[in-house]
Amino acid sequence: MLAGGVSPCTRAWPIKAIHLQAKHLGVETDDVVVEAHETSSGRKSRLLAQIKHDIAFTIGNGTFSEVITAAWRDFSKNLAHGFDALALITGPLSGADLELRTVLEWARTSPASDDFFKKVNQSNFSSANKQSKLKAVLHHLKAANGGVVVDEETAWKFLKAFHVLQYDLDIAGGVNRAFLTCIISQFGGAGSEGTWAQLIEAVRDINQSAGTIKVETLPMELVEAFQTGAAVTISRDLLPPQTPTSTTAGMDADNPLIAVAQLIGTWNDASPADQEYVSELVGETYAQLTSRLSIELNNPGTVLRYKRGIWSVKDREKCWEIGGPHIFDRHLEIVQKHATQALSQDDPSLFAEAEPTEQAANAYSKQLRSALADTLALMTTRPQVLTRCRQDTVQSIPKIVVAQTLRSGGWLRVASIDRDLAVLAEAAPETFLDSVAGWIKTGDTFKSLFAQERGGAFARTFSTGLLWGLESLAWSPEFLGRVTLALGDLDALDPGGQWTNRPLESLKSIYLPWHPQTTAPVTIRTSALNALGRKHPATAWAVYVSALPGVTQTTSGTHRPKWQDFGAVEVPQVMREDYFQEITKYTESLIGLAASKPEYLADLAEHLPDLPPAAFTKAIILIGDNIGLLRESGRNHKIWVALKDTAQKHTAFASADWAIPRSSVAEIEALASRLQPEDPSIRYQDRFGASDPLSYDRKMTWQERQQKNENLQEEAVQEIWEIGGLSAVVSFAMTVDRPRLVGVALAKLEGATVPVTELQRWAQSDTESLRDVLMGYAAQSFATRKEEWLESLGLPQWSKNSKATLLTALPFSRATWAEVESLLGRDDGLYWSTVGIGLIESKRDLRYAVKKLLMQSRPDGAVESLHAYMLRFGDLNTKDATRALLALAKAGKKLVGMDSYAVEALIKRIQIADDSNKRDLEKIEWAYLDLLVQLGRETFAKTLEQRLADDPDFYLDVLARIYRSKGAPSKEPTEQERHAASAAHRLLLHWRTPPGQKVADGFSASDFRKWFEAFLEEAEEKGYLDIGLSKLGTVLIHAPEDPDGFWVNRAVAEALDESSYEPLRSGYRTGLYNARGAYWVDPTGAPEKALSEKYRVQAESAELEGYFLLAACVRSLSKDYEQQAGSMTERFGPDDDN
Questions:
Q1: Whole-model pTM over 0.85
Q2: In terms of DSSP bridges, do strands 997-998 and 212-213 run parallel, antiparallel, or are they unpaired?
Q3: Are 1072 and 1117 in contact (CB under 8 A)?
């Protein structure tokens, strides 16, 4: 947004706003909502996104289910199709999960739903994994849709609107973060990392209040960082000698007043505590000081800045050097006193009890607190500038302040100074590290601090400043060892969470061999990691693994010191020889840790391809020597799976640059064969997993791979059956991801019969996995043997519930329903109340299914069946659809989680049907009014609106539901009356068909006059004249222009110009004002100016035609917008200061 770019997935329009925690906007996909606006028309395009750090695109993944459910609800009710998009934002995906993105792109590029589904299922084009991912989405869509299968057309439309966006911002060395910092650097700023950190902090602050990110809500210095840099000018050395001016920044800083201002740095006019501090430093009242500063502020070239109540000094480092001689010991004593008080001030927003308003009122501003931290750091790093001060005083004050600040307060103190802790670490490194060590020793401070972390997009964490402080000090060889052990201690205390800025990630970034974030030599780095390995081996192991070649390929580095100079501005380039020397040392330590702790061998096996040749050989030998121990501990299966997967992958991609040599693959295969589990129930679990075990075999077609998978599954079940019989197969099915496939394979085995009693037990089980086995077994058995198999079961002797459960596994067809009638009779509701809805092929079958579903109080299933049939065949039985919709409304089920799109489509079709019953249609529109009044819907309450436009008595009846008639006594309404009033209010609020308007025939002035005269007579008699006129005025804004070109039909203009109808004009003005809807603030006030001009022209036109009261009404609106435009310019226009 700041760089002028566009959002992914939306129209290519400028980003205007980013809503965080956007639940208040009425959306379910609410982590972040991005709004882009077309500059010329004001049309908007939105991206509704959910952010998930850990997700898998499988049927059993609960997080994926949550994402699809929220997206489905928004797709059904909140999406402006063609303009809005839904997205899941996540981190790096597995190779298998990446294929879902391909499936989504196929949906977007397919001309129709049948073409898309044909493409996914086509051999030689698609794959089993792609089909698996689509199946997972459809599974979760069904769950989100109340257990009802979503038809192919609607599912295709959903997939077109749904996106998966991959970001690696949660990885310190991620590609996206590096790309973003690269963009930032294009605007000329020297510290792209610092700007990035500022962005993160600003977003966190806004996110705390579920706010909206716009240019106007971000700190001005951040916005200015994205402005075009200054023009390049000729070097001063190439110019002839010139007389220096008296208004340079340097000379401006060289006076006592400005020197004290730069000692302060930044402060807030609105803070009494800031005022007290500033006044004490200067030695005069704050009013006197600001009077003098105002004069200085208007001097050309001044270093002072004043923006929205915030005073600051430009280029503080340079001003510190120039103004240092004007600072004395008395100034530093005042700094010490107020810095201790300000930095020891706990953040009121973090208190669990009621907000301490007294403390908040006397609080120092966050601007001054940060400026004080900078002052302390400047005193430490540039003490020689303060020539009038005792150097021992200058050096001691930062240590004293930091010690006193960190001495007490616990986690609350650390959280309160989070934004300034990194700078305080630079101000007093030893004191900071001593305090951290003390907190670690007790443990409670950091345990409580980590416990405050909350999830959600951009939610705040309170350990950032702590980690940044340690990262800053890690650049120094002197402090690297202490920092490494401190981060190791913190990692041991860290419970983990959604945030990626964690102690372990800091260590990984610091010790990255090809881009180390320290100036310490390799000897010190190696020594520090060895010490970490002795104290925290698990942490050291993770650091060593991340340093292996190919494991971490990108990084944006760690936090760099703001004021300290630890020997290097930029990290020197690592030479190839030095890099491999360091890798060799790290891998030696890695192998040593694995030898002492066998629990690391599984992880070592996964990283065999990343090891240098010598370390690879040692790792193979080490794992082989520990096979017995691994079998005893049960770890052999995990290592076997990792070795087998590695061998398959590097065999399939043998020609790739990253593939290891064939000889190394052979060593891995040999080791895997030694570790292969003897128990087939363990060995074959991957054949029934969520992913395709043959996905690496690129030589087979999809059909061949599918057939081979089925053969492998049959072989697995056959072997397990031969060893342990049916009980072993059932136990095995309980351990796999897809037990239904076990049931299918079992049904294919020759001679493997399942006793009818066992099938009955499965049908009666409460275990979902066991019922899934039955579903697979029954479906395959019926597909192979048809009615013969059913007859062999002796179903008449089964319990009613067991019959119904088994029958739901059969095809959703007339033949199955005949079996239901025969076996269940009057108890067929046991089947119809639970069966999944499938596609129906004939009108007769549709009517039968709808009837049965309605009888079992499943109107949602009936609606879905009708909608699916209508989409496929273009036909709809209006009477059945009416019954289903009314039954659904009567059931009181909200459309959340159901297909509101289907409901809308049926209503739209009934509205244009010749055989629809108008009274029933009115009932339907009343029942679904909440849906029909939503923005972006394809239809609206046409029948009700037309009746309002045709029948003034009906209009008065609707008013009577909401308002008491004039002079009527008040009474407490019943609950039913409240509900009726609420619906009536929504109808009038969205009414847009004015009296005299016909949907088919256009506007009739004579019909309007007849309606209006009848309304006046009845409204006066019933006591609803004033409120009736007012509400009528709001709908008259939709009246068309007159045939002669006047901007509103003259019949309407005459009514609006009648002197006795002031409420009508008032309502008309309100309607015009509200018609603008929600809008984004334009700092130039251009939209308001355009509206002002529009209504000014209309007012002048009305005056020329003699409609003076109408003209006055519209002109008042013009003046309002003119005033708003002026306010916008005044508030957001350019500053007068420098």
A1: no
A2: unpaired
A3: yes
